[in-house]
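Internal ticket - ligand job 411, adenosine-5'-triphosphate:
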Amino acid sequence: MARTSEIVAGLDLGSSKVAVVITEGDSTERNIIGLSLVPTGGGLREGQVVSIEQTTEAIDAAVNEAARMAGCQITSVRVGVGGSGTMGFNSDGTVAIRGGRVAGTDLERVLEAARAVPLPSDKQIMHALPQEYIIDGHDRIRHPVGMNGVRLEARVHVITASRTALINAVECCSKAGLTVDRLEFGGLASSAAVTTREERELGCVVVDVGGGTTDIAVWYDQALVHTVSLDWGGDELTKQIARGLRTPVKSAESIKQSFGCALASMVSDGETMEVPSVGGREAQTRQRHLLCEILEPGLEDLFTRVASEIDVAGCRELLAAGVVLTGGTANLAAVADLGEDILVGMPVRVGTPRGPGGLVDVVQDPRYATAVGLCLDTFEVMSVPVGPAARPRATGGGLWGGVRKLWDSWF
Ligand SMILES: Nc1ncnc2c1ncn2[C@@H]1O[C@H](COP(=O)(O)OP(=O)(O)OP(=O)(O)O)[C@@H](O)[C@H]1O
Ligand SMILES: [Mg+2]
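stdout (structure tokens):
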């Protein structure tokens, strides 16, 4: 059968920047044909829209730039969101198998049962990812349709987000003339871009450290078992540098990127840097060591929080593939080494986006992880309905089609 080529655009609404990646191809092979990275200019904080106008402008600029490069017009996007209010939990559901053999409708009913959890009115389910199915006590079944049995159980990982945050994200896209094809948790999209199937099977943790948030996704046996979004990102380090070195925030950011190192022990004595001063005072020459001494404790705290989240997931000793760091802060020198010091016994690596071809060398930057991941159809994720005309749409298979009624009833 002939494969149909389509254009897919991933738009990462980050606290620091809007990143857009445009790909062309089908679900088996995609090439990057356009990309852009535009600062959000304060339109988002901790992953959430705080200015519709500024965010819309950034989206408009980013989409236009990437579309110009790709030589195409973009009218719909897959949007990556995260930040405070995003969290995941595990849930399960059980149904009787009608007719003694699992049919597609049994699958829909059991997933519906697993997702039927009471939520506060300001929360919205973004995804429900199947972990395993159990038929008459036999567990770890991935494809139950066609199997015989009496009782079908489903274990799923549910990701919820702030309803208002999702509506605001959609509104900004709509004001920029774009239809939202799918909303996806940034940590899920990043996982698709920076980990291999083998790592997710063996067990790994994806830690996407952005500017205002840190998205954590714990994988084991190909399934997502824990997700959380922390209100902490690399911009916190920038602020600490600005305070500690008494320099403007803009200079602190460029000092962090040019001279930053997560481990003070890796910087030799005598290395110096020029630090602009505030209030018209003269720039000063300071020891690079001082910068590392500011960065190290902040990152130690972050890895300690990552360790606690791994403990919450309850599978620390099972995560043989270790930790994959991504997001802009993963660019910091020696950050993976510091991670290994704190997360004793776990290998830590920096993950840059992989998968699609085309301009792939240009996206070899962890800041593009979410935008690239959005263009891949690695996981079966259900899109959130985002307006009266929108309907849930499945990717990577038709599993979710039958639960539209439920989604419709929520809007
Ligand atoms: N070379 C570098 N060294 C250190 N930090 C860096 C470097 N490059 C980028 N960063 C930091 O990465 C952060 C931005 O990362 P990223 O673009 O992934 O964030 P975001 O997706 O916009 O935000 P979030 O995911 O938190 O909503 C900023 O804090 C920035 O200072
Ligand atoms: Mg991000």
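Auto-summary: The two ends are 38 Å apart (CA to CA). Residues 387-411 have pLDDT under 50 and may be disordered.
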